[in-house]
């Protein structure tokens, strides 16, 4: 991360905003991967204003993901085993230490392992503060001590200061807390760090204004492979855990409902009772790359991008209106000429479902077998046949150019191929990652992990402040398609998990659950524009009173595998995330569909089958 060097300070301004964007595995918008479909980290980094309307500079730095180097070795070791992630954490923390001045704001963004980088940096800032120039002379020693401070097996002589030995498993948490306090006392006493800590509340505090991440994945070392009995490495727990630091003012995470890979289990935050962080974690349709960006059809990742921008805008962070508009219009243009993007063909012979699902045919064999004809991607009242020579003809290969027409020319400006919430959901294209184990994610049922052996416990995380995005309800109501357009989307994560028997039902009305993150009245935010500017609000979708009053209720105590009673979630109601931001309503206004084929109105008038009346 040698590009993360100290930036020049600017004149006599009061403060600046430091924005660090950490990309996901194999993602690199400034290297060899620049021609690949961009992640939401890349796209949002291009949309930040460099100076806000009040004169505040926004310093944006981009950190490529692990495994995005030129060599095959780097791509393999970084992608499969997360090698290079520690270097990214070091570099990001180092950059902030070198550039932070009292009063500055710190914003951290990330996707996948880049999200893990952002969270790890926030955890280190929350634990040890930011090193002073004197402390920076001992940066390597302090970082290694932080990384191993919870390791009971590390030789005590390797630490920079004297720390207590491990007393035994029963006192582990108290032992870690005492070690951290001892270390903080040393850093403060010797003026090696800055910030406020318990018993050290002099001077200005150092906090993280916001962490904004898409689908955190923290797998390091050997990936988990339950199919062959491997739990995977517990190395990620050296850097961070699931508990959000009280030094983080705001934390937002977009989560994927349809990610099947066991190695990509979601890493949700949980909040202690006394913690005041404004935490919000929202579930969206799609797999890991569909939520965080990385497929050519960005229809679903546009929704998570607009949502994230709406979380950050009220904090004073400013975006370029024209650049964001162009970002969304690129997707609409692509969908117009690619109503049926390429998907790998399944094995055509009588084959077990497991093999068909996890081993789609390679590109060359798929093309050899001929074109794939496709199903309508929505209910008949919503679906319209694309203006191509053969409306059912599918692209025979991935096409990166959003203006390229693979069959016959289509006039741009015709209705998008798929309206809001109906973008294509792709199945992961990594055979190895799918083969070693599958998983059904379930909102409200993410379990704590034993940091010693990386094994799941039977205790769900608490105070996770989860919500279900309204695009889930709309996609179910409009009968959008599932993975690779094989069949209508069922959303097994909510409507029926065969692993643990949990089932959620959609209910009309406001949820009884109180979320710390709070919630605005649907459609009330940013009516006059954004960032102090006035824009044409004719594109904002007109939401009605009560349109967003939905929630999901835990339906019953089901049975898991082997007839055993399933575990129960800590909460029984999960609210629907209301569409109350300017950019979400702006995107819906652009892509809700033609008059008479409006997906939002259709979903209100025709609730999905999982709705309780």
TrEMBL record:
Pfam family, one: T6SS_Tle1-like_cat
Residues in T6SS Phospholipase effector Tle1-like catalytic domain copies: 16-311
Top-level taxon: Eukaryota
InterPro entries xref list: AB_hydrolase_fold (IPR029058), Tle1-like_cat (IPR018712)
PANTHER family associated with the record: PTHR33840, TLE1 PHOSPHOLIPASE DOMAIN-CONTAINING PROTEIN (PTHR33840:SF1)
Listed name of the protein: T6SS Phospholipase effector Tle1-like catalytic domain-containing protein
Organism annotation: Echria macrotheca
